[in-house]
Structure formats: C-alpha cells, structure tokens
C-alpha cells in the first residue's frame, strides 16, 4: 500500500495550517496514498509558549477537519500532533487517527515528554506545560497493524518492541527534531527501531522554518525492515510517497528470524497497561 508523509510548513495561523494540510491530504489521496500522515504540531507553532493558546478539546475544530477530509478522501489519516489537547485542566501532546469513514481510530498522547538540556545548543522542557500520556496506541488497517509514537517516544526502544510484539508492521512517529538532535540522531533512531523490530518506520516532520522560535530539522523519512532509507524529504514543504511492501517484511523476518529466537527465558519487555 502507498504511504504519504506530509512535511507541512507551519505558520502561526491555525486556519491556514488546517486548510493547507487538508489540501495536501487530498493531493496525496489523488496520487494513490491509502495511509497519510501529518507532522508533529501541524496546526500551531512548536513551543511551550504556544501550547495553551492553541489547545483544543477532542473532538474540536482541528479533529473535525481531519475527520472530514479522511472520509472525503477515503484514507487512513494520522493527524500528527494535531493539536495541543486540553482535557480536565491538563494539556497533552496528542496525535489522532481517523479511518476512511471519518471515525477516530486512535488517540495517542505523547508518553515521553521532551525535557532536554544540551549546554550551549538547546534546552527545552515540555513538562513545563504538558502532561504525559500513559498508554500505547495501535490501530488496524486492511493492510497491517500500525503503532504510534510522537517524536521523543522514538528514543525509547522498549516502546517500539512492545508494538512489534503486538503485531505492528509499521510504526509512525510524527516528530519535530531540531538542528542539534536532528543531524545526530533522527535517521539513526529510525534505522535502529526498524532493524531491531523488523518493521517499517516512518517519521513526519514539519518543514524547516529558519525564522521560527524552534527550528525543525525536516527530512521526513521512511525506513524499511532491512534498515534502508527508502524515502526522505529535504527541508522544504513537500509530500513524499513510498510503497510499503509487506511481502518484503515477511521475507526479512524469515531470513533472519530474531522474533522467534528471543530468549524469553532470560529477558523480556512487557506492556503494563
């Protein structure tokens, strides 16, 4: 099946971001995409100072638009971090997924908050305004089962391993790495998660905006289960496409059967809730 990743240029105007995002979903559908993904923070600038201002309930304005365009185009739509979500007085970094009938299939709240300090380069603390999610998020399609993470979640190998154990063959991480961690770890982490679990891994970044307070790395990418980069964007707004070949995935798992060779008598990773 064809996967499309939309590397959107995000402005400070929510309505413009939503309009452009929906337009690009339509474009991707017209080119045969069955699963379409938007980047982290696609409807607002990325920064702790913006989260409260742009926050919405779910369902709300942004998720309603995503539901409508998913149904119109008959696609599975991963809504990036569609919005900073407000619920019960707390804010979450949340990704919603809608099916071809417009129904919401999953809602992933970022489990691992991006709190880092690289002296002289970048300091960021999502926990100043956001609360963490406490659950894994998977959804079924007629093609395969898909596992969801958001940005910093990709650094935690145990999460991807759980998804692999639960039968996911594609992991999608909307993310906004920066100019410090992007060149160092963006592709490396994707290839690691793909090879470790013999799955496809897709990451979807906003386009780079040098004038933004937080500058995203860009380079939305798809990696196959052999660890090969099979699609990669530059830094500009674009849509990249790749065909997910589940026969190739099955062949790789047969050739190198690590999933059946794990020593569960010696170690294990389990999902607690």
Automatic annotation (TrEMBL):
<dbReference type="Pfam" id="PF00795">
    <property type="entry name" value="CN_hydrolase"/>
</dbReference>
<feature type="domain" description="CN hydrolase">
    <location>
        <begin position="1"/>
        <end position="246"/>
    </location>
</feature>
<dbReference type="GO" id="GO:0006107">
    <property type="term" value="P:oxaloacetate metabolic process"/>
</dbReference>
<protein>
    <recommendedName>
        <fullName>omega-amidase</fullName>
        <ecNumber>3.5.1.3</ecNumber>
    </recommendedName>
</protein>
<dbReference type="GO" id="GO:0006528">
    <property type="term" value="P:asparagine metabolic process"/>
</dbReference>
<dbReference type="GO" id="GO:0050152">
    <property type="term" value="F:omega-amidase activity"/>
</dbReference>
<dbReference type="InterPro" id="IPR045254">
    <property type="entry name" value="Nit1/2_C-N_Hydrolase"/>
</dbReference>
<dbReference type="InterPro" id="IPR036526">
    <property type="entry name" value="C-N_Hydrolase_sf"/>
</dbReference>
<dbReference type="InterPro" id="IPR003010">
    <property type="entry name" value="C-N_Hydrolase"/>
</dbReference>
<comment type="similarity">
    <text>Belongs to the carbon-nitrogen hydrolase superfamily. NIT1/NIT2 family.</text>
</comment>
<keyword id="KW-0378">Hydrolase</keyword>
<dbReference type="GO" id="GO:0005739">
    <property type="term" value="C:mitochondrion"/>
</dbReference>
<dbReference type="GO" id="GO:0006541">
    <property type="term" value="P:glutamine metabolic process"/>
</dbReference>
């Amino acid at each position: 099946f064809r996967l499309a990743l939309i590397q959107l240029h995000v402005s400070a105007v929510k309505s413009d971001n939503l309009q452009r995002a929906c337009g690009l979903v339509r474009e991707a559908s017209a080119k045969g995409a069955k699963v379409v993904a938007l980047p982290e923070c696609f409807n607002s600038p990325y920064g702790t100072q913006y989260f409260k201002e742009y926050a919405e309930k779910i369902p709300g304005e942004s998720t309603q638009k995503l539901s409508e365009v998913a149904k119109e185009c008959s696609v599975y739509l991963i809504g990036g971090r569609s919005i900073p979500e407000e619920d019960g007085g707390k804010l979450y970094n949340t990704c919603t997924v809608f099916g071809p009938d417009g129904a919401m299939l999953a809602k992933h709240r970022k489990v691992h908050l991006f709190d880092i300090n690289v002296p002289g380069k970048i300091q960021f603390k999502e926990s100043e305004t956001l609360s963490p999610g406490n659950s894994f998020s998977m959804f079924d399609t007629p093609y395969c089962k898909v596992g969801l993470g958001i940005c910093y979640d990709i650094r935690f190998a145990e999460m991807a391993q759980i998804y692999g154990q639960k039968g996911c063959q594609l992991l999608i991480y909307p993310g906004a790495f920066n100019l410090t961690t992007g060149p160092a770890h963006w592709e490396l982490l994707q290839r690691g998660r793909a090879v470790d679990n013999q799955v496809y891994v897709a990451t979807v970044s906003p386009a780079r905006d040098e004038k933004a307070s937080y500058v995203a790395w860009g380079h939305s990418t798809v990696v196959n289960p052999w660890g090969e980069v099979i699609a990669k964007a530059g830094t500009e707004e674009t849509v990249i496409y790749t065909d997910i070949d589940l026969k190739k995935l099955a062949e790789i798992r047969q050739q190198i059967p690590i999933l059946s060779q794990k020593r569960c008598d010696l170690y294990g990773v389990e999902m607690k809730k």
